[in-house]
Design brief:
Elements (H helix, E strand, L loop, with lengths): L4 E9 L3 H12 L4 E4 L8 H4 L20 H6 L9 H14 L6 E2 L4 E7 L2 E6 L4 E9 L21 E4 L14 E5 L3 H13 L2 E6 L5 E3 L7 H9 L1 H10 L20 H14 L15 H18 L3 H7 L11 E3 L2 H4 L5 E5 L5 E4 L3 E4 L2 E4 L2 E4 L8 H4 L2 E3 L6 H4 L18 E3 L12 H21 L5 E3 L1 H16 L28 H13 L5 E3 L1
Helix pairs in contact: 1-14, 9-10, 14-16
The structure holds ligand NA7.
Length: about 525
Amino acid sequence: MSSNTHDVDIAIVGAGFAGMYQLHKARSAGLSARVIERGADVGGTWYWNRYPGARCDVPSLEYSFQFDDALQQEWEWQERYAPQPEILSYANHVADRFDLRRDITFDTSVVGARFSDNRWLVTTDSDLKLNAQFLVMATGCLSSTNVPDFPGLESFAGTVYHTGKWPHDPVGFQDLRVGVIGTGSSGIQSIPIIAEQAASLTVFQRTANYAIPAHNAALDPARQADVKSRYADFRAANRQMTSAFGAEFPQNDASAMSVSESERFQQYEDAWMSGGLPFLRSFNDLALDAEANETAAEFVRSKIRQVVKDPAVADLLCPTQTIGCKRICVDSGYFETFNRENVTLVDVSTEPVSHFTPDGLVVGDTEFEFDAVVLATGFDAMTGSLLAMDICGRDGISLQDAWAEGPKNYLGLTIAGFPNLFTVTGPGSPSVLTNMLVSIEQHVDFITDTIESLRANGQSTIEATTNAQDAWVSHVNGLADLTLFTTCNSWYLGANVPGKKRVFMPLLGFPGYVKKCDEVVANGYEGFDLA
Ligand code: NA7
């Protein structure tokens, strides 16, 4: 072994919330661990996504760790939905409080990992290597940016930004001609703020998106005090809610079609006024029944038409896909922005961006000239960061080959042929369809408990069986097929990345998933080979 190869019990890739908690948990279990992180500090997605308006769509009181009561009592959230700088401050606070940085190597990327002699040899873009018994991929679901292959992009003389890799120095758009490509959450959050600064803003929209107002505001101190007085119970109740999100998103347990039109309208109106993702909990069949779904979709379209003054622009901003099949956005003044004189909307759904020039970009016969272009074009979600590494399991099988037909794993946590490798919030687990912090804690607890159990029983490897894996993949797909989630092109399906296999990646249903994990353990790690 070279002098810069470190032996550890657990190698952890990524120092976002998953990697940070995994490190803390490993230490608590008496395991040695090292985290490799490509950024210069902790925070993961919140370290990279510094674009204007970046904000979480889960309420701040819940988008936080619950493993340590003193931590959750001492941290004071300022807003209902925390902005990126506040979440990053929180991540730094956690790192300081638990002295995490001494076991994290920053500014270093893992390039590969190979399983041999029951150990993982992890290689990086420096001379650092880790020789570990267990490998935990805490690489995040939205960490590999999707940069479309626009011809001539490098010839553009202005500045190109990607929302998911935003500079650390302040970026100002004052007096500039700016183009934004993409109207997912990142575009919808940043466009209103860029519009206020720029001389002109042109938004290139391929698919119109549903956005529900955040009604963000300073967090009411009385609300914060109340939740903190019963934090554990509050969290436990929200984990078990059948609405399955791991956050306080109450589900109205009635079908949209079972009530009168006026009752339905009132329900949507109340949800609209309260704001955010729970809008989709207005009725219990919005994700299941196309007719029910259309009532919610049309309600949002009617709101867009009320706000946007130019009927042609309003029409273009009205989404046509089922609501919720792409993640809905939570906005602050997005649709109002299109009433500004300096904002133009360009439809690129049928005539795409053809290429860039030194002065700007071309759509059809029109060249648009810009000083800066923002790519709000999203991520190679859930699998991108994993497949970017050269990971080889038993007998030299590569992850690229194992996942050639889409991600296959057991419980979203482990992959047949890749012993002792765990993916935190991997495809096939509830992950992005939940409050991520809750899912991260559940996975890290499972992984650490599993390692402790192996050690207690004198076992050294755990590996998903192919049968269990196949059954799990069928289960994940079967649940998705019962819903409307597969009816449009979303990043949940990998449909935003050209050439990516179309597979619905997250698992629906958090409480059922947790129950299944608990049963697997209770049944002696059913579906795994232990050696
Ligand atoms: P998203 O939601 O994947 O949005 C990306 C946007 O970029 C979306 O509107 C895409 O259109 C658009 N896009 C992607 N490629 C192109 C090309 N080639 N031309 C034009 N437009 C394009 O990513 P976000 O970063 O906004 O949000 C990701 C998640 O982060 C979000 O769901 C929250 O969970 C937080 P499309 O819809 O594919 O037609």
